[in-house]
Amino acid sequence: MTSPASSLAIHGGPKAVTAVRAAPRRWGREELERLTAMVEQPSLFYWNGPQTNALLAEFRRVYPLLWVMPCSSGSAALHIAVAALRLPPGSEIITSPVTDMGSVIGILYQQCVPVFADIDPHTYNLDPADVRRRITPKTRALMVVHLAGNPSDMDALMAIAREHKLDVIEDCAQSWGACYRGKPVGLFGRLACYSLNEYKHISSGDGGIVGTNDETLGLSLTKWGDKHYDRVAGGRNPETLSPNYRISEPQSAVAAAQMVKLPAIVAAHIRFGTRLLTHLRELALPGVMLPSVDPRDTHSFWFVLLRLELACFRCTREEFVAALVAEGAHAVAGYIPKPMYRYPLFQNHDFFAGGWPLRDAGLTTMDYRTVSCPVAEAMLVDGVSLSISPTMSDEFVDQTATALAKVARHFAA
Length: 413
Ligand SMILES: Cc1ncc(COP(=O)(O)O)c(C=O)c1O
Prior knowledge:
Elements: H1 29-39, H2 50-62, E1 67-71, H3 74-84, E2 92-95, H4 102-109, E3 113-116, H5 128-133, E4 139-145, H6 154-164, E5 167-171, E6 179-180, E7 183-184, E8 191-195, E9 208-212, H7 215-224, H8 249-283, E10 288-289, E11 303-308, H9 317-326, E12 331-333, H10 344-347, H11 357-360, H12 374-382, E13 383-387, H13 394-411
Parallel strand pairs: 2-3, 2-4, 4-5, 5-8
Antiparallel strand pairs: 1-9, 6-7, 8-9, 10-11, 11-13, 12-13
The structure holds pyridoxal-5'-phosphate.
The site of pyridoxal-5'-phosphate (PLP) has 14 residues, from helix 3 and helix 4.
C-alpha cells in the first residue's frame, strides 16, 4: 500500500540502504589446497589424519586446550561433553531456554534433565540470579550458552558452580572469537564446545569441537565420540555405550583452512557489529533497546539482537521488520520462535518413543508445561536480529543504522 505521508521503502519511498553487500565467498583457495592435498592421502579417516591434525593444531593456537576431540557437529560436541561427565540418570543441568536444540539433545540422550533458567534482559545470556533459584539437590552442571557472540557473566556463573560443586560446559557455538575479560570463552568451564555448521563464523558445512584441560576427562573425549573405541591404546573393547560422532578428513580439511581465517573473520564481525551498535547508541531511538556489552569483554557479533518496546510503536514487530527489510537492511524478527520448553517435544515430554522413561521411573518430576522464563518469553516476542557478515562495508552498516532510525521514527507512537 502506498502512503503519500510516508517515505518508507515499503510504501514506495527510496531505500535507506543502497550500498551493495557483496555475496559471501566463504571458501576459496586455502580450502581447495587442503582438499587437493587430501585426495592424495591413502585414507580419509580422522584419527591421525593429516587434515584433522592440522585442524587440531590451528584450533589450539586460539584455544589452548590440552585434550580436543573434533566431531561431526556442535550438537555432537555438546553430547560428548555431557556424556564425559558420567552423571547419574535424573541429574539436572541448568541451561538457557534461548538457544539451539543442540544445547539440550545430549542432555536428554544421557538421561539427564535440562532445567531452563531465565536470561538477562539486556545480554540474553543466563541470568545468574535465576540460575541460583533453579538449583536443586539434583543439579550437577551448568550449560552456559554465549548467545550471538556476547560472553556470559562467567565470574558470577563460575562462583555459583564453585559454591554448589557444579560442572560447567560452555556452549561456544555462536561465540568464536569472543572473550570474557580478555580470555577466550571456552577456557572457563570444565568443557568447551564449538560448532562449525553452515551458519557460524567459520564453517565446514557441519562439524564441531569439544575440548578440556581436565586430564580426568581428556582421554575419554575421543572414546565418547567414537563408539567408545580406544584409539590411543588401540582395540575394540567398549566399556559403555557411545555414539559415532567422528569428523572426517574432508570436513577437517575445510575446517583447518577456516581456522586460519578465523582471526580476520572475527575481526570483521567485531568491527561491523561495534560500528552498528555505536551508531544506534548515538541515535538513542526511543523504544529501541540495544544489547548490553561489558566494555571489558569482546562480543564477536555473530549477529546483533536488539529489542523493541512495542508500546512505543504503532506497528507490530513483524511490520517493523518488514519495513526494515524493505529499506534494504538484513533483519529478521526474533531469534528462535519460542523458548525451548514450549517446543512440542518438551510440552509432550516426547523424548523416547512418545514418552519419557526417566519420569516414568520416578527419576524426575520435571513438567515442562509449567516452566516459565518471563524474560526469555518477552525477548522472543520483541527481539529483532540484524545479521553481521564480513562482506558488509562501513557504508552498508551506516545505512542499516539510518534505516532503523527511519523505520523507528515513522512508526513512533
Ligand atoms: C548455541 C548453539 N548451540 C549448539 C548448536 C548446535 O550446533 P550444530 O548445528 O553444529 O549441531 C548451535 C547451532 O546452531 C547453537 O547455535
